[in-house]
Amino acid sequence: MTTKKLYIKTYGCQMNVYDSARMADVLAPLGYAPTEVPEQADLILLNTCHIREKASEKVFSEVGRLRPLKGLAEADGRRLLIAVAGCVAQAEGEEIQRRAPAVDIVLGPQTYHRLPELVRRAEGGERGRGLVDTDFPVESKFDFLPEEAAGQGPAAFLSVQEGCDKFCSFCVVPYTRGAEASRPAARVIEEARRLVAGGAVEITLLGQNVNAYHGEAPASSSSGAGVGDTWSLARLIRALAEIEGLERIRYTTSHPRDMADDLIAAHAEVPALMPYLHLPVQAGSDRILAAMNRKHDAEAYRRLVGRLREARPDLAVSGDFIVGFPGERDRDFAETLRLVSDVGYAQAYSFKYSPRPGTPAAGTGEQVPEPVKAERLAMLQQLLDEQQIAFNRATVGRRLPVLLERAGRREGQLAGRSPYMQSVAVEAPPRLLGRIAEIEILEARPNGVTGRVVTLDTDRAPDRPRNPQPEGRAPAPAA
Ligand code: 5AD
Ligand code: SF4
């Protein structure tokens, strides 16, 4: 089989990064090998994101930039195919085909298992509407995708849940990714084992609303599962924690409403579950939270964080925020700042509200003027940056187990993550790559910390717990 080259450009969230890897897996049997150079590609795949601003315009301009490569490939006696996948494809499939004839294939996030078939047909010269696949098929793509490629490295991702039924009024996800669905627990465990056998030390469980996970229970589960029984995310995490060699488990992204008691308890009881939680709140004003259809108020979120910190006192909390949601007044925004001060975030992401076509909030009257959004965003980001640096500073002098995941930016350095998701840079020999080392934190930087290697975690006596927690508790970040 001749080798063809596949160039993938990924936009947006971790779920898309994961999906891109799976699409590369599914195309390997057709002879496609990855390339970093679009000029060499026989197939260019844009895996798109629709969550915020100008998503589709970005796709159209990217296709415009890539189009000349088709001519170059032809002059070279090759044929270049362009495919658009992901959430923009789902939302605007037909429009893409109409406005960008250079695009050969359009497919939504639920039909990646059909990609080889579409590519084969496009290679055979087929064009047109038949190569747009934005179905929400009854079959799950996961039943048809090949096994997880095991070579993700020490910190791997594993998709366990997809879609969302929450319908926050600003968000396209329920429309582009479809209804909530969970993968059966037995499949997840099997894939986790394979990832660990392939060198993973940490696994992050992915889902748009991951803590709503309710996957089919394994047939042989000790709880005596019957047909139709499901496992919660907490139950799944407990089972994964049993896998020899899997030292760290994380999950993202969670909705406050699905933070079940057993999941909070898991933060207290499962040492492999890392003390870091991404728990978006979006806003601090009850009026705005209601208009966003978040289904909880600010006090419920504060209480929830309180309970989580009771379970795991050193929990580092991260969040997402939207400023300038329709109807947000100064006093609403002040409530967001107050909530941020009360909670104390180790990390956060904040965005200006962007009306997404087809979402309920996009049509509502009182849109906030752009300069007001910009001013609020700057204020919020300043507070969040201060909290992040305070969190990082408070770890200086401590010894933390750090998973060294990759080469650092500077010669002789490795980079990794602390249990709190801080990025850590250290001088370390390449042989420590993929290992957990005890690192003394020396210096706080705005986006991470630097440290020095104290000992290799895996050098310790075998009777020590397999999954040591950092000593003491992380200081509460300054407000
Ligand atoms: N405008 C701005 N931010 C948005 N997000 C989702 N939809 C929008 C929108 N229409 C943000 C939310 C979400 C994160 C992934 O993206 O904060 O948690
Ligand atoms: Fe979007 Fe998250 Fe709300 Fe679901 S819970 S609609 S993914 S913001």
Brief overview:
This protein has 479 residues and is of the alpha/beta class. It has helices at 14-27, 55-75, 87-99, 115-123, 173-176, 185-197, 233-240, 261-269, 286-291, 298-311, 330-343, 370-394; strands spanning 4-10, 32-34, 43-48, 81-86, 105-107, 132-133, 155-159, 161-162, 181-182, 202-206, 214-216, 230-232, 248-252, 276-278, 316-323, 347-352, 399-407, 413-417, 423-427, 436-445, 448-456.
Folded structure, characterized:
The chain has 479 residues and is of the alpha/beta class. Among the domains are: 4-133, Methylthiotransferase, N-terminal domain (Rossmann fold, 3-Layer(aba) Sandwich); 151-273, Transcription Regulator spoIIAA (2-Layer Sandwich); 399-456, Nucleic acid-binding proteins (OB fold (Dihydrolipoamide Acetyltransferase, E2P)), CATH 2.40.50. Helices cover 31% and strands 22% of the residues. It has twelve helices and 21 strands. It has helices at 14-27, 55-75, 87-99, 115-123, 173-176, 185-197, 233-240, 261-269, 286-291, 298-311, 330-343, 370-394, and strands at 4-10, 32-34, 43-48, 81-86, 105-107, 132-133, 155-159, 161-162, 181-182, 202-206, 214-216, 230-232, 248-252, 276-278, 316-323, 347-352, 399-407, 413-417, 423-427, 436-445, 448-456. It has a six-stranded parallel sheet, with helices on both faces. Strand 15, helix 11 (330-343) and strand 16 (347-352) form a beta-alpha-beta unit. The model is unreliable at 459-479 (pLDDT under 50). It binds 5'-deoxyadenosine and iron/sulfur cluster.
